[in-house]
Amino acid sequence: MSIAQSDQKASTPWSVLGSLGVMMFLQYAVWGVWLPVLPNYLTAPVEAGGLGFSTAQMGWILGLAGSLGAIFAPFIAGQLADRVMNAERALAGLLAIGGAIKIATAYTTSFPVFLVLSICYSICYMPTLSLTNSICFQNLSDSRRQFPPVRMLGTLGWIVASSLFTVLWLKSSDAAESTRRIGDALLVSGGLAIAYAIYAFIFLPKTPPRRGAMEKLAFAKAFGLLRGRGMFVLSIVALPIAMVHQVYFFHIAPFLERAVKIDQQWLGPALSIGQWSEIVFLTLLALFIKRIGFKGVLLLGCAAYVARFAIFASTTDVNAVLAAQVLHGLCYGCFFAGAFLFVEHVAPPDVRHSAQTVFGIVILGLGPVLAGLYNEILTKQFPGEGFFAGFWTTQAVIAAIAFLIVLVAFPLSIKRQNAGGESSSMNA
């Protein structure tokens, strides 16, 4: 891909690569320690160690909360980082506040209070996902080659946090006690977020805003990128993919425990198979983009979603299900990481922070909103014993539709929009 001379940078120092890698490790460790196992804690009966929330209430906590955070992201992360203050300082402040809220959530048993705290936490945490991507892109000399391995350390952080917590802390012989202990993941996440905030403020490279940009509101200009065919189609396809991806996390832990019969202690390692696979495919992402282009990479990601959900729908054999988890690396690495790189390469330099957060509205905002509604519909549509088969089949069908949209509508050539809203061609 040819890039404008103004975008060229000197080779990225190893110290910067290291600090960005630690940033990604902590970013996803904060999330990974609680998200995979929280659905079990929320929906288990009180006498079994959980909070006794309904499946629909669980969906609103994990769906609505995340979506509101992403919707606010352009006004918080994008505007701050592109126009007001250094991105690493915005990141540190949001993490510190979010960590304190997450600790308070650990002591909450009321659904309304839990939901409100989760929304407040999401408004702080969700913008940090786009901020970390933007900090990387602004400090890496070759983002297409260097971003995948740096982002890979985020996956490693998720694996370490989720696996260690379940293996070391959920090993009680009393199943109810193990379920009750899942709530401690919220304490661990909050404390880790505060430590991460201190690290971000002290050790991350200085990433100042671009005050000389033409638009007063960076996110307004970033929204204009949707006029481009590639960004428009990607955003349309990202909605159903983000929805099925989000709802996957609602039900994968209960599926593994109740249908596949995996003990809670081993849920973290079982789920981490997907993250280990993600590491492999993130290291290969730059090669994939070079050989088959962004369109081919996105198609590969959608096809992996179809295959994984189809396997889950057809069997509860533990070996087949765990083998299917390997496809997670293709799902996330090719679709989501590939999409973030696509956004980076079509956005003008002065609104890249905001372009990432605008795309974040789709995959972390509108997608989770749809996920909450979709989850409630599926819960009513497939009650009782047949839920998981019907649920995974529906997931596979939606992913197949997304695949067809990319195949038919996504462009082969990539275009970067300039300040005037026009575009210039780049090779894939």
Can I get a quick summary?
The protein has 428 residues and is mostly helical. 75% of the residues lie in helices and 2% in strands. It has one domain (15-208, 217-426): MFS general substrate transporter like domains (Growth Hormone, Chain: A, Up-down Bundle).
Q: Biggest sheet, strands in spatial order? A: 1-2
- Largest sheet entry: 2 strands, antiparallel
Q: What is the 3D form?
A: globular
Could you tell me the CATH topology label: Growth Hormone, Chain: A
Low-confidence stretches: 1-8, 418-428
Explain this structure to me?
This protein is mainly α. The protein has one domain: MFS general substrate transporter like domains (Growth Hormone, Chain: A). Helix 1 crosses helix 6, helix 10 crosses helix 14 and helix 11 packs across helix 12. The chain is globular, with a radius of gyration of 21 Å.
Compile the SSE list and pairings.
Elements: H1 14-32, H2 38-43, H3 55-84, H4 87-105, H5 111-139, H6 143-169, H7 175-181, H8 184-203, H9 218-223, H10 229-259, H11 267-314, H12 318-324, H13 328-346, H14 352-381, H15 387-409, E1 414-417, E2 423-426
Helix pairs in contact: 1-5, 1-6, 1-8, 3-4, 3-5, 3-14, 4-5, 4-8, 5-14, 6-11, 10-11, 10-14, 10-15, 11-12, 11-13, 11-15
For the structure shown, list the relevant keywords.
Growth Hormone, Chain: A, two-stranded antiparallel sheet, disordered N terminus, globular, mainly alpha, single chain, disordered C terminus, 428 residues, 2 strands
